[in-house]
Amino acid sequence: MDEKTILRARDFWTSIVLFVASLFFLFQTSKIPFFNSASAGVDSAQWYDSAALVPFGIFGILLVLSIVLFVISIRDGGAKVALSAVGLDIDLHEIKRLFSISLILAAYIFALVPRVDFIICSALMITALIWGYHRGFRPVTYIATAAVIVPSLYALIVNFPQSQWGKPHDDDWFTLVSFLALTATMFVVEFRAKKIDRVIKVTPVVAVLCPLILVLAMAFGFRQNVPNRTGLLFSQIEYNYYVNLRPLWQGKK
Amino acid sequence: MIDFVVAQLLGFSSALYILVVDPITYVYLIPAVFLGIVFGALPGLTATLAVTILTGFFGNKFPLDQALIALIGSYVGAIYGGSYPSILLNIPGTAASAATSMDGYPLTKKGLGGEALGLTTTASFIGTLFGTFCLLIFVWLLLIVSKNIASPEKALLALFGILLSGTLMSQDLVIKGWISGLIGLAMAMVGLDPLLSEARYTFDWSYLLSGFQVVPVLMGAFAIPQIMDGMREAIKLMKVPHVGRIRPEAREVGRHMPTILRSGAIGTGVGALPGVGEDVAGWVSYGVGKSMSKEGDQFGKGSKDGLISAEAANNAAIGGALIPLLVLGIPGSPPAAALLGALKINNVIPGPTIDPALILHIVAILVLASLTMLLMGLLTAKIFIKILRIPQTVFLPVVMVLTTIGSFSVGGGINDLFLMIGVGLVAYAMNKMHYPIAPLVIGVILGGLFDETFRRSLLISDGDMTVFFSRPGAAILLTLNVLLVLSQIPAIKKMFAGLTDKFKRKVVK
Predict the structure, then answer these.
(1) DSSP for B112-138?
(2) Where in the sequence is the domain holding B125, given as residue range(s)?
(3) pLDDT at residue B18 above 80?
(4) Fewer CB in a 10 Å sphere around the end CB: N or C, chain A?
(5) Is residue B52 assigned to a domain?
């Protein structure tokens, strides 16, 4: 099937999503005062300076364009093939791979970074992505995804509320064990397959050094905020920096 | 006029001198240009990403004049760096260098890779200087004109930027570019509105009251799709061919000087169009070169003229892209949009009120950055060639960590990361369906300006819509907007095509 028809099949669905989204946001916009808005008994706006004016225009035009896209997709034969996987050019293997990448990234951002030490969780994510996708072997991809998902679920379930994010918890240890286990598995599997190449050798070094250097540079060099300062490793680094190292080069020790 | 140019050059010389004698300049400049070239050279990483990531790092915690050295240095480096994989591997490192591969790779196959890299380096250097010179001159002329620009013109100009970007950046249907721009505009509507502080689409989440922050949106839109796309494909081992001497012959450069200057002019012009950027500049210049060059029939088969046409133009576009950015606050390219993000978080408002010293400082940085790029390109090219051997699966996870910490540090904390990944997933889906991402980002950046100035125009005129065509500037801009939209309507397109055919036949008769 040619690329244009595949694109039009996807456009068919996109136009429906856009149409529904435009309607939803037009409804939301209707809640913003438009004609003769008044609050606390005082006239606050005319239609021409209402906060709803531009959004009405945007979502109105989006609605029209979604209809135009819908018509184009039907005219170019997209609608005919829109219900088949072939028409949408869906490759199940590719979808699985993409889904697992999305899962790892989402777990890293939504579950790990807010709750777990940044160096440890980044090391785990880097190892999982490099090893899991370096050669594209499906079992390896599944192991790597699981190694990120399991500690993420633990951190998410045990320390879900935002009030718990900044406090030290055992989810740091859980993630650290997961990282070590994944690294060990990687070496065992690759050693057995006799495929230990330069990328495999360098993975743990990149995984640990990269976030470590970045966090140190950001926190102590660039003096910027870093995620989870109470994390297992960073709290120790910060403590030793201010209590032992800094006084040392300031001549106070 | 000559007095004006001389005064400009004197002001620029003074700014350049201050920059050159300050040792801190080199602390920022050398690593930034190096990092930029690396980002450009690694397929999957882009100039926009380099500037965006550094914006996250330098944010608003560093003095702006120092942060700008790093940001502009990486911008210049990355646009040039994209030529390495284009020439050696036939894989464009950045979209800006896609046209470079047309002749760069055939030259490598002929065993002239080293010479091609040398020529590219020099052409990029001269192209950047050309664009910078135009920036120095035209930015002031336009600033004088822009003093007469009021809210109606600003609103129409912002709209023109989004529409033009959507029109020119679309690979598939033009309406996809417009939809992308509208989604960006819609995203800019989130939060308290700028005139009445009315909460819009916050869904009772206090984080959204301040609207979508620029840096996480940029990171999400440009980094996450690159990471997902790069990781999606299994390892591709890149065999980098042997490259000989990387030093261009002065005679060879002299022979191609007309092409370099022509491409520089095209690049600057295209770069100055709001929201268009270096990739379009490269292709337009390549197309013009093909029709104008004596060796036009050799384009695509390893023509040095073809190579230079693309490379000089994409680097000249940098200076061009900064003209609308500094004059009107409308970015000329996606990396310039990231640069605008950096200016915004430092509370610098580009436009008629911009500090003149800042413009001269930027021009001086551009000159120094292009010189650093030239030296690095000629002396350390072998390092960049070695970097091409690093597989995407190794550096993309590192980029993920970079974007995460960069996005987090700008100020919004964890919520900014949620926004980044959300925008990233949407941008990835849009990429797959051939929706350009640049109009979305430009929509997010210009949406606030459009909303405020559009409503302010109506507020001042008491709701009278004639304010958008009773002023000469506004009337011209409104006409441009209308023509841009009309020109994409199929019926009108057909009508124009028919008229053109008739005209051609009459001319032939």
Answers:
(1) -HHHHHHHHHHHHHHHHHHHHHHHHHH
(2) 2-470
(3) yes
(4) C
(5) yes
Q: Is position B370 within any domain?
A: yes
Q: What's the Cα-to-Cα distance from B56 to each of A196, A221, B133, rounded to whole Å?
A: 36, 14, 29
**pLDDT tens-digit profile of B143-171?**
777 777 888 988 998 898 888 888 888 88
Question: With contacts defined as CB-CB under 8 Å, which chain A residues touch B233?
Answer: 136
Residue B475 belongs to some domain of the structure: no
Tell me whether residues B421 and A68 touch, CB distance under 8 A: no
Phi-psi region of B365 (alpha: psi -120 to 50; beta: other; left: phi over 0): alpha
| DSSP class of A87 | T
> What is the band of A42 on the pLDDT scale with cuts at 50, 70, 90?
low
Non-local CB neighbours of B52 within 8 Å, separated by 6+ positions? B215, B218, B219, B222, B223, B338, B341, B403, B406
CB count within 10 Å of CB A143 equals 18
Contact in structure between B6 and B45 (CB atoms under 8 Å): no
In chain B, the number of structural domains is 1
Chain A contacts of B463, Cβ < 8 Å? 46-48
What 8-state DSSP symbol labels residue B435?
Answer: -
Contact B463 A47 (CB under 8 A): yes
The pLDDT-based confidence of B183 (bands split at 50, 70, 90) is: very high
Look at residue B462 and give its three-state secondary structure.
Answer: coil
Whether residue B509 has pLDDT greater than 70: no
pLDDT band, very low/low/confident/very high, at B370 (cuts 50, 70, 90): very high
- What is this model's ipTM? 0.90
Looking at residue B44, its pLDDT comes to: 72
Give the chain B residue whose CA is nearest to the CA of A48. B463
In a domain, residue B238? The reply is: yes
Query: In angstroms, rounded to a whole number, what is the distance separating the alpha carbons of residues A64 and B175?
Result: 11
Mean pLDDT confidence for B121-140: 90
Q: How far is A114 from chain B (nearest CA, A)?
A: 6
State which amino acid sits at residue A76. D
Candidate ranges B245-259, B348-362, B465-479; pick with highest mean pLDDT: B465-479
- CB neighbour list of residue B260: distance below 8 Å, 6 or more residues apart: B123, B126, B127, B130, B253, B308, B312
